[in-house]
Amino acid sequence: MRTKPKEYKWLRAEELPAKIEALKKSGRFFTIAFQKDTKEYRVMNGKVNAFNRLAGGTTPKKAEGKFTMFDAQKDGFRTANMNTAYYLRADGIEYAII
């Protein structure tokens, strides 16, 4: 069941990498919505630091603005694009990325 967020905030696009890094350190689940390279929109729910499930335990280097996360709905690893992200929900706070 989805819970109502505690707060709604704006997040500047240049602040998003720091927020993703903080989520990586905390190991918490979050939801991100972004536009894929194929111009489709995607919403993913997962976490960033689940790399112990990968063979070798590390991810390959990604292009600028992209990061790998574990997608809990697909039960696999996916690449998300920070450059085209427009929504983030983490720690009970919904962010609109501007």
Can you give me a brief rundown of this structure?
With 98 residues, the chain is mostly beta strands. It is built from one helix and seven strands, in the order βαββββββ. The longest helix is centred in the first third of the chain and has 11 residues, at 16-26.
Give your account of this protein's structure.
The protein is mostly beta strands. The chain has a single domain, classed as SH3 type barrels (Roll), CATH 2.30.30. The chain has 1 helix and 7 strands; from the N terminus they run βαββββββ. A 7-stranded mixed β-sheet has the order 1-7-6-2-3-4-5, covered by helices on one side. It is globular and about 35 Å long.
Strand order of the largest sheet: 1-7-6-2-3-4-5
Domains, number: 1
Radius of gyration: 13 Å
Query: Which regions have little confidence, pLDDT < 50, spanning 5+ residues?
Result: none
Separate helix tally: 1
Total beta-strand segments: 7
Write the layout of secondary structure elements.
Layout: E1 7-11, H1 16-26, E2 30-35, E3 41-47, E4 66-71, E5 76-81, E6 85-90, E7 93-97
Parallel strand pairs: 1-7
Antiparallel strand pairs: 2-3, 2-6, 3-4, 4-5, 6-7
Short descriptors:
98 residues; single chain; 7 strands; SH3 type barrels; mainly beta; seven-stranded mixed sheet
